[in-house]
Amino acid sequence: MSLEFSTNTFEKEKIILAGKEEYIVGGGRHLFPLLPKAFAEIHQIGVIGWSSQGPAQAQNLRDSLAGTNIKVKVGLRKNSSSIPLAEKAGFTRDNGTLGEMYEVISESDLLILLISDAAQAANYQQIFEAIRPGTTLGLSHGFLLGHLKNIGDSFPETINVIAVCPKGMGLSVRQLYEQGKEIHGAGINSSFAIHQDVNGRATDYALAWAVAIGSPTIFQTTLESEYKSDIFGERGILLGAVHGIVESLYRWLIRSGHSQEEAYINSVESLTQPISNMISKNGFLSIYISLTDAEKETFKKAYSAAYHPAFEILMEIYDEVASGNEIRSVIEANNRHQRFPIGKIDGTEMWQVGVNVRDNRRPEKVSIHPVTAGVYIATMMAQVDLLKEKGHLYSEIVNESIIEAVDSLNPYMYQKGVAHMLNNCSMTAQLGTRKWAPRFDYIFCQQAFTALDDNKQTDEKVFENFLTNDIHQALSICTQLRPSVDIFG
Amino acid sequence: MSLEFSTNTFEKEKIILAGKEEYIVGGGRHLFPLLPKAFAEIHQIGVIGWSSQGPAQAQNLRDSLAGTNIKVKVGLRKNSSSIPLAEKAGFTRDNGTLGEMYEVISESDLLILLISDAAQAANYQQIFEAIRPGTTLGLSHGFLLGHLKNIGDSFPETINVIAVCPKGMGLSVRQLYEQGKEIHGAGINSSFAIHQDVNGRATDYALAWAVAIGSPTIFQTTLESEYKSDIFGERGILLGAVHGIVESLYRWLIRSGHSQEEAYINSVESLTQPISNMISKNGFLSIYISLTDAEKETFKKAYSAAYHPAFEILMEIYDEVASGNEIRSVIEANNRHQRFPIGKIDGTEMWQVGVNVRDNRRPEKVSIHPVTAGVYIATMMAQVDLLKEKGHLYSEIVNESIIEAVDSLNPYMYQKGVAHMLNNCSMTAQLGTRKWAPRFDYIFCQQAFTALDDNKQTDEKVFENFLTNDIHQALSICTQLRPSVDIFG
Q1: Cβ A440 vs Cβ A238: under 8 Å
Q2: What PROSITE patterns does its record include (chains A, B) (predicted)?
């Protein structure tokens, strides 16, 4: 795949990732004065929904467009329980920035649809009917395209369809936007996609939207590539795999003689602090280099043992997403929630121990555990390699597999455990984690930890692929494009 | 759903299961003399494939039809690695009972297609082209119908399409057939389905086929109801759930202070021996009644804690099967096996401990563990209740959820562990177990064992539903229709 775009308002920049040219736009507050030009025909931006992305994007857009003639108006169902929350954030009927969902849909020139995936699937016909011809429909996720493909339907032909997809959960989109007031470039990167462009203005709208929500780097994708990598990525290393990794590691550490607290520290704390931070700042190789010789050997063994099992489950996830199965599953799961609400995942010993560890943190006790690092990085690299095979662009791969993990998501697991991280993500992501974490757990127990316990030799070819992987260069370029951020810093 | 059928050759019998009339045919060796009449127009039965069901059904059919003019001929791919195995069982080119697959397909009057589900999906067009009009296509599983529905195709209209589906793995179909020479009625029950009947003879063919492979009870279903309950059932209590139950129970028992050996004995050995045997002979209530007062309380708590979590995963499985997702998944998994063969599942500590326990068995040490019984029976009852909701007939429910588990499958786990049980099942079943066992494991750890550890009170309504469930009467009738068997007896 190769993509290009042209913009009348912003400057695009050529970068070379792993030897391949890509074009990006760098964001930043200095570009806010350009927003009215880029949004020239847009008088009202409707933001529909108030769950994960809604609050963040509505507030960021409003703040970035303050002082212009462009109104940001939130649309919610008549009796939505989110109305008080939107009002608390300043979107009220009285000041004309809150309205009934379908009214806001038909009034708006740019309509950003941020209701849940299942709600999009259930209500898209009525929504399409309410949209005026010439409107721009904005999505932050390609799920709806996947659903339309599954059922043989399509978007109305008379509208623009664009996407701006922040590579981080809603909370982080708001939190880093606010940090961005002080730290130039703090923010969550976004991909953008132009799916339909009926008036030739779609690219500028998408870029302006991404700039306005505070993305430091804006890279191009297609709506199809986006939903595949996104639904895949959250089931993989971003949420599903990392959950399965720490659960299985915790038990393996206990079996290896660690106390409960030590096991928690060497799995969750090690992964979400020094390992994530070092990847964010200096990439993978810096972690390997920082280890002692003995730890290097352990890391190599753990990496070798975990890479193939992780790759196998990741291949399965990718197939399930590409075939439409995951999208069908999400819709059916939502129907079942009428009867059984989604269950609690952190009542188990491990996460109870975690509460205690957090209450008595001694950061000097936390170091890079070589097995934790080996298993985690092997899984991340397997995801990177699979996305390369599937033809995704490096910008998407780096953001969807690495930056989103270490900058946006892992910090929430560090802060309050796995449920805190998950509950701030979409229902699609929560369901995917419940589905795939146990699969990673089982395959690691059955194949990776058994190999490690048997002291199986390093697979030199697998490890060579790690050392020489072209993702290191791509990550390093992407890292230079934005400051390293600490979301709770 | 209600079904009826008429037969010119066999006697049908009315039974009342949970207040509802069903018709069955009782099998037995005394009916073998009727087979030529029932198979009147059938001169050759082709059995295609030699994996799980193929060897069992080909040999049973040949033995039951010995002395008649009906030839049983095995069809295999030209270079199939199974040829020596078929020859060893007496199917040879020299005696005219072994041939190339497509030749056997076009020669046969009744064509029993027992190649793997994925191979059926990949080759069905060529197979349909090779079938002469007027032939009877026999399936032992409705998977192909599910696949045809997924891709919008159908069976040729000029042929009969029937199914005889043994409710047990191939090995058990052969093993109990051989026991049946001594013990009247030993055998694996089958469901049958008449999907297309172009000459009005399909029902007699199906019943004769089921009698000839040694089924003691033959009950009716539809091809669609069969594949839904079958693919669902093996992902549920038959394989997937029972695997997840013993894995999570083993760890819970260790955490509760048991030694490794005790934990294995109280999970796997307890479940596959006294619990399974007692259900097979006397039903569920006998287990509860056999417990002491204190154990009864523990059983009730475990049952209450496990029923809803199990039901939740079972609902998901049923939806995934009914939507076609599971069928698509199986086909894609088979494609991936070119690259990563299906992995080993019993290298972990638990199953290594199991080897040791089996080598030093002391049956007097094995008793009904009330938590194991509570969790297992709750899951089985949840499966029963869900199949009732979905409109399956009681005969199918009892066989697919209870009899197949305790008489055909659990004995293999008892004999040599979980992999031995699984490896003798279809690839569709093996894949389903790898997919769903971890889900049961996680939800039990997150919801059932946490409730148990917190000493949560019994859910009296859930337990009342157990005590008064109409499945007890249905199981008791089905149990009376066949002798209780010990497959390794």
Answers
A1: no
A2: KARI_C, KARI_N
Mean pLDDT within B191-216: 97
Strands A12-17 and A160-166: unpaired
Is the pTM here over 0.90, yes or no?
yes
The span from the CA of B205 to the CA of B199, in Å, is 11
8 Å CB contact of A450 and B347: yes
pLDDT digits (tens, 9 = 90+) for A145-161: 999 999 999 999 999 99
Looking at CA atoms only, how far is residue A194 from chain B in angstroms?
A: 30
B439: closest CA among B348, B313, B344? B313
Provide the CB-side half-sphere exposure for A481 (13 A, CA).
30
pLDDT at B203 over 70: yes
Q: Which of A311, A336, A447 sits opposite B315 (nearest CB)?
A: A336
What is the mean pLDDT of the segment spanning A424-446?
97
Give φ, ψ of B306 to 5 degrees: -95, -25
Q: Which are the contacts of A84, defined by CB distance < 8 A and separation ≥ 6?
A: none
Q: Which two tokens stand for residue A310?
A: 């992780």
pLDDT reported for residue B365: 86
- Give which of B407, B421, B398, B413 is closest to B469, Cα–Cα: B398
Question: Each residue of B405-457: pLDDT tens digit?
Answer: 999 999 999 999 999 999 999 999 999 999 999 999 999 999 999 999 999 88
B483 has pLDDT over 80? no
- Determine whether the interchain pair B450/A333 forms a contact, defined as Cβ–Cβ distance below 8 Å: no
CA distance A140 to chain B (A): 26
Instruction: Report yes or no: B138 and B131 within 8 Å, Cβ to Cβ.
Output: no
What structural domains does chain B harbor?
13-218 (3.40.50.720), 232-481 (1.10.1040.10)
For A323, the closest of B308, B328, B346 (CB atoms) is: B328
Residues from chain A contacting residue B345 (CB–CB below 8 Å): 442, 446
The token pair that represents A148 in the structure block: 């339309």
CB contacts of B350 in chain A (<8 Å) are: none
Residue A489 has pLDDT above 70, yes or no: no
How many Å apart are CA B49 and CA B57, to the nearest integer?
10
Mean pLDDT of chain B: 96
β-strand pairing of A217-220 with A20-26: antiparallel
Our answer to whether residue B337 is catalytic in this structure is no
Give the pLDDT score at A338: 87
ipTM of the complex: 0.95
Q: Compute the distance between CA of residue A195 and CA of residue A189 in angstroms, rounded to an integer.
A: 20
Residues from chain B that touch A327, judged by Cβ atoms under 8 A, are: none
pLDDT tens-digit map of B355-400: 999 999 998 889 999 999 999 999 999 999 999 999 999 999 999 9
Average pLDDT over residues A301-321: 98
CA distance B39 to B116: 26
Split at pLDDT 50, 70, 90, the class of A248 is very high
How many angstroms separate the CA of residue B146 from the nearest CA in chain A?
Answer: 15
Q: Say what the pLDDT of residue B186 is.
A: 87
Chain B residue at shortest CA distance from A440: B438
Nearest CA in chain A to B325: A325
Of B332, B434, B445, the CB nearest to A319: B332
Chain B residues bordering chain A (beta-carbon distance below 8 Å)? 251, 255, 308-309, 311-312, 315-316, 319-320, 323, 325, 328-329, 332-333, 336, 339-340, 343-349, 434-435, 437-439, 441-443, 445-447, 449-450
pLDDT at A24: 96
Residue for token pair 């969902």: A101
Q: Greatest CA span in chain A, whole angstroms?
A: 69
- Inter-residue contact A456 to A305 (CB < 8 Å): yes
Question: Which among A63, A216, A202, A232 has a CA at the least distance from the CA of A141?
Answer: A232
Which two three-digit tokens encode residue B59? 């040999």
